[in-house]
C-alpha cells in the first residue's frame, strides 16, 4: 500500500489531468454534437448527408483510429497543436457522433403535434427548434446523453498513449513499468481514480434525470 | 418449450465461439510470431520431428533442471524483441522481426538446438520489458535493452553484446542549431522518446521543463511526430537513430555526439545465473566463430555510419 | 424530401434558401476536402508506393499485406466472438442471480456490477494484462484481451438483459408463477428467453462496441495481432500512417456495418415469428417509430447504426413512450435503479 501513499501526489496529478481532459472534451463534444444534430435535422440535404456519414464513420470505427488521426494525420496536414489539444479534439470528435445521435433521438421523441403546432402559429425552423422542440427534447435527451458522457469519461483513459501523457492510466503505467511497483496496488489506485469520476457523475445524472423526467 | 430456444441459442453460440477462438489461437502458433504463449502445444508437436535431429547437436548435454535443458527439451523459445526498430528489431511484411537483436537471439537459440522457425517472437516495447520476464511471458528479452542497476533489481542481464550511446536526431538542416543535449535547455524545443526507456530518463536532466518531453510507446511514433513538426528532437541510442536516418532519404540527421554509454544486454529471469553464463559463453563463441560480426554486417552493419563492433567484456552474472 | 415535422413543405422562398444553403455547404465541405487533398499532395501523400501495397492488387506486396490483414481481421473477430460469448454466459448468470436474490442478498452483485460498469475497458484490460500475470495466471495475450473485454461487457450485457426482463409485461411472470413454476423456472424459461429476444439488437450493437474495443489491446498488451496491431506493423514497414489509417477505417466500418445489418436482419426474422406477447410491446414501438420522421428512417436505413429500426428494442424510448410499461417494471420488483439500466443499455452507448 505504501506505493499508493508515497505516490499520492502523482496519482492526484494524474487524476486532475484526466479531469482536465474530460472537462474540455465534454464542452467540445457537446458543441460539436449539437452542431451535427442540427445538420442532421436541417432542411439542407447535403448537410444531412454529411451528418449521417460522419455519424456512421465515427460509430463504426474505434476511438484509437480517431486519436491516431488527430495525433498524426492532422499535424501532417499542417494543423499543429499540442498533443493535449489534439487528443481532446479527437475525443470530442468521436464523442460528438454519439452526442449527435442522443440529441437527435431526443428531438424525434418530441410528439409531432408540438412541431406542427409551432409551425402553424408561424414559427420559423430556427424558432420552433429553439423555443419549442429543444426545451422538450432536452428532457428525453438526458438519459442517453448521460450514458454518452460517462462513456466519454471512460474513453479518456485511452488518450495517454497518444502523446498526451500524465493522465491517470499513464501514471499507473509509468509506476509499473519504469519503477517496478507492486502492480495490483497501482491498479487499485488507477481504478479508484476512475470510479471517483464515473460513479459521482452517474449519481448526478440520475438525480438530474429524475428532476426532468416527464410522464406523457 | 418454444420459449426456451433463445437460451439454448446463447449457450450454443457461446460454445461455438469459444471453440472457434480456441482453434484460432492454435493456428497462430504455426506462424510462430503470434505472441501466443499458452498455445505452444500444437507448435511443439509439429516441431518435435524436425527437432529430433537438431536436439542431438545441442539439446542433450545440459544439466538437468537448468533453463537450457528445459528449452532444449521443449524445442522452442519465446523471445521478446522490438518490432518497430530498424536494424535491431523491425517486423517484416510477414510480421516476423528482423535485425541485429533478432540475429543475436537466433545465435543463442541455435546453441540450444532450436532453429529459427521454432522461435516465438513477442513484441516487447520498452516499457514492458521487465514485466514480460517477471511474469514469464518470454524466456529472454533481446530488445536494445540497456543494462543498468535499477533493472538488475528485477531481472538478470547476460552480456552486454553491444555498446551503444544516446544521441539526438533532428530534421535535416537543424543539426547546426541543436548541437547536443545542452541545447535542450531552451524551453521551446520539444523532445520525444519512448515511455519506460533509459534515454527518456537520461534526457530529463537536460530539459528546462518536463513539459518539453513527449513519450510514446514506440520510436516510430516519435519519428512520425518529428516529421509532422510536433516535436523537434528524437532521442535514443545512436544505432537506433542511425536506422531511422538511413531510411529517411536525408530528411533527418544526427545532432552531436553520443553523451551516454548504453551497454545492451539480454534480459532473463532474475537469478538464473546458469542461463546467463550460457549466453555469455555462446556470445563469446559466436565472436570467435565470426557469426557475431556476420550478424552485424547482415543487419545494422549494412548502413552508412555504423562501425563494426567487437564483443564487449561480459559483466559478471548475478 | 423534407418530410420532417420540423419544417413545412417549403414554398418558393424557402426552396431558394434551402438551395443556397445546400450549395454553400457543399462548397464548404468540398473546399475543406480540396484544401486537405492539396496539402496531402504537396507532401507527396498521393505517391503510388504509399497506396498500392494496401489497395492495388497488382502490387508485389499486395497478397502478403492482405494475408496479414486477414490475420488481423480473424483475430479481431475471434476475440470479439469469444468475448461476447463469455459475456453472454456470465451476463445471464449475473442477471439471474441478481433477480433471484432478495434486496439484501443481491447487494454484492449490484455493487460489483456498478464498479465494473464504471471502469474504463482499457483499465480492465490493464488488469487482465498486468495483474493476472503478476498473480501467476499465465495466459496468452489473446485470452488476456478476451478476459479484459469480458469483465466489462458481461456486466453491460447483464444490464441489457435485466432491462429486457423489466420491459416484459408483468403477466408473463404472473402466468409462470400461476402454473406452478418456481421463481427460478419462470425467470429462466419464460422471462429470460423473451428478454433475450427483445434485446437481441442491443446485444448485437454491443458486439460492434466489442469489435471496436479489441483495438485497445495495442495500448496495454503485447498482442494478439488484431487489426490495429497489424496496421501498426504495416505502417512501420511502409511508412504510410495516413494510408493505413484509411484502410483501418474502411475495414472497421465494413465489419461493423455488416454486423449492424445482421442485427436488422435478425430483428426482422424475430418479429416475423413473434408471439402474441411481444406484439403487445410492438404497439408502443410502432408509436415511437411513427414519431420518427420518414426522412429519418430513410437515412437510418442506410446508416450503419440502424438506429431507426432499432427503436422498438430501445428500452429508453420504450419506457418513455409507454406509460403502460412503467408499472410493469416496478411489479417485477427489479429495484429503484431501473432507469440507470436504461441509460447504459442504449445502443448509442459509445462503449469503452
From TrEMBL, chain A:
- Gene3D superfamilies hit by this protein: MetI-like
Which family does the UniProt entry place this protein in? Answer: Belongs to the binding-protein-dependent transport system permease family. HisMQ subfamily.
**Native source species:** Aquipuribacter nitratireducens
| Compartments (UniProt record) | Cell membrane
Q: Report what the protein is called.
A: Amino acid ABC transporter permease
Q: In what residue span(s) does the ABC transmembrane type-1 domain sit?
A: 15-205
Q: Which InterPro entries match?
A: AA_ABC_transptr_permease_3TM, ArtM/GltK/GlnP/TcyL/YhdX-like, MetI-like, MetI-like_sf
| Residue stretches spanning the membrane | 21-41, 53-77, 83-103, 157-176, 182-208
Principal location class: membrane
Q: Which PROSITE patterns match?
A: ABC_TM1
Query: What are the UniProt keywords, alphabetically?
Result: Amino-acid transport, Cell membrane, Membrane, Transmembrane, Transmembrane helix, Transport
Query: Which CDD domains does this one have?
Result: TM_PBP2
- Per UniProt, what is the membrane topology? Multi-pass membrane protein
Automatic annotation (TrEMBL), chain B:
Keyword tags? Signal, Transport
Q: Where is the signal peptide?
A: 1-21
Q: Which domain of life is it from?
A: Bacteria
Question: What CDD domains does this protein's entry cite?
Answer: PBP2_GluB
Does this UniProt record's set of keywords contain Magnesium?
no
Annotated Solute-binding protein family 3/N-terminal domain residues: 76-303
Give the SUPFAM superfamilies listed for this entry.
Periplasmic binding protein-like II
Q: Which family does it belong to?
A: Belongs to the bacterial solute-binding protein 3 family.
Q: What is this protein called?
A: Glutamate ABC transporter substrate-binding protein
Q: What is the source species?
A: Aquipuribacter nitratireducens
Q: What is this organism's lineage?
A: Bacteria, Bacillati, Actinomycetota, Actinomycetes, Micrococcales
From TrEMBL, chain C:
Identify the SUPFAM superfamilies for this entry.
Answer: MetI-like
- Residue ranges of the region described as Disordered: 288-352
Task: Spell out the CDD domains in the cross-references.
Answer: TM_PBP2
| UniProt cross-references to PROSITE patterns, sorted A to Z | ABC_TM1
Q: Where is the protein situated, by its record's location annotation?
A: Cell membrane
Polar residues biased stretches = 343-352
Q: Does the keyword Transport apply?
A: yes
Please state what the protein is called. Answer: Amino acid ABC transporter permease
Source organism of the structure: Aquipuribacter nitratireducens
The root-end lineage is: Bacteria, Bacillati, Actinomycetota, Actinomycetes, Micrococcales
